[in-house]
Amino acid sequence: MHHERIQGLNTLPPCLVDKGVLINKADMLRLLQDLGQVSYSHLEDGVVVATGQGLVMEVFSDSQQATLVANHTLYINVHSFDYLEMGRVDSDKSQFDLVRDNRRLRLVPLSDPIKDHLSHTVNTVALEAMVADALSASWDACLDDDRNFFE
Questions:
Q1: Total structural domains in the chain?
Q2: Cys bridge to 108: 9, 37, 39, 148, which one at CB 3.0-4.6 A?
Q3: Around 97, how many Cα atoms within 13 Å sit in the side-chain half-sphere?
Q4: Residue 118 in contact with residue 106, Cβ under 8 Å?
């Protein structure tokens, strides 16, 4: 097997941990789609042109649509970029640079996917409990009405 890899007959996909370069659009899409709230910088030739904070509303792959950053929202089309560089701002924060020619859209996540997932799970459980309580109360009310009807 090692011999086959050397000859290029059986290449394995890369494993990137916290830093590296992605050129595959599906990998870029998967990495960006759960970013949530971000701080962004738009750079041209290394010079910061614009900065702000926003919510990643959608990440998609379409050769006919633009990437849009406006009104504190980001709609990111991975086809707008040649590749994605991922790295670390410091030990706690990731940084994602979407690159095309001399332009970069730098994204630094402000939300924590672990906390967001736990919060979503707790909210789902709470909502399910409220719905169950409401349905139970509704059934009780129906049974009370039926008893009054037949008496």
A1: 2
A2: 39
A3: 18
A4: no
DSSP designation for 11:
P
User: What is the DSSP code string of 127-144?
Assistant: HHHHHHHHHHHHHHHHHH
Cα separation, 60 vs 76, in Å, equals 6
Question: Residue range 126-151: average pLDDT?
Answer: 67
Residues 6+ apart with CB under 8 A from 105: 40, 41, 42, 43, 67, 69, 76, 81, 97, 98
Asked if residue 26 and residue 92 are part of one domain, the reply reads yes
Statement to judge: residues 93 and 41 lie in one domain: yes
Which residues are 94's β-sheet partners?
88
Whether the pLDDT of residue 5 is over 70: the answer is: no
Cα gap 95→51, rounded to integer Å: 14
Owner of token pair 């949530």 = 36
Tokens describing residue 55: 């919510």
Its pTM stands at 0.70
